[in-house]
Amino acid sequence: MRSYDPDIIQEPTIYRLTEVCMHYGESLKEINNEKFGDGIMSAIDFKLTVDKVKGSQKEDRVVITMNGKFLPHIEKTLVIHAVIRFLIHRREVAENLGE
User: Which positions are catalytic?
Assistant: First the structure.
């Protein structure tokens, strides 16, 4: 089980990143769905990079890139039916072998 120190949210950078996700999360989800279909970005097969660039006013700016594998949603009912078919087939094979 992954866990974290709940006090970490008080740290300004972590708080700001959380705020960005809360503010833009729904829009990011909609854009992902438009581009890829229904699914999610993997947090396991995932790369994150942080870069420093200069803005138009020559100020330092932060660029955070999240690069995760797209995982399409699979209907749970299809998975359940596949598991049931597998178990029935396994039982039939066992019966045919006399087990």
Answer: 16, 19, 42
